[in-house]
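Give me structure tokens for this 210-residue protein.
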Amino acid sequence: MRGKDLAFTAAFTLIAFTMLASFSRSENVAHPSWIKPGATVVYYGSLTIGEEGILEATIEWTVKNVDLNSIELEATIESANLRTPISRMFKVSTATGKLLSIDRDNVDVGRFFLWLYPPPSIGGTVEIEGIPYRVSGLESVNASNRIWRCIVANSTLDNYDIRGVITRWYDVETGIQIKVYMDLSFAYLFKGENTTSSAKAALILLSTSF
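Here you go.
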């Protein structure tokens, strides 16, 4: 079980906290009004890694502090597959929506993924955590006991080390991320040999408090 726990921890952290990439952004982005201390957003997530079966978890985001320069959030992952919860602190630029640091380690990966505000136009493109997405249309999503009207953002990855598709749904009014689907394959070195693996992940909003 320990090996599976470690694989789950690494993979779900990767999926839940999304992927770090080399792009950057400089556009101005206003943050939505629900971003205020004490606001919480909770997701249910399922992850399949290769042939390991389905692993499940809840991911809770809590806004800890907001000032003129940055927004601080805590993310906590809890699962029966984990011996203890995983918690991380994120800092996001108030002015641009860019992710600045994770656990005080500076990062440069572009726009944070938890909200997209103001929503981009249908047919337009947007980068989220350095990954380019195309806004393909509008869909209604049933989550957290209500219907959300969402823009749909799609990305297709075709790099040497990662390939697949990612789709994100964002509420048109609040900008909050409602749903995520990922189907990815990875190539990496393991004990000096080229190795491949795959992961499918789905997240959906469980509840909000703001």
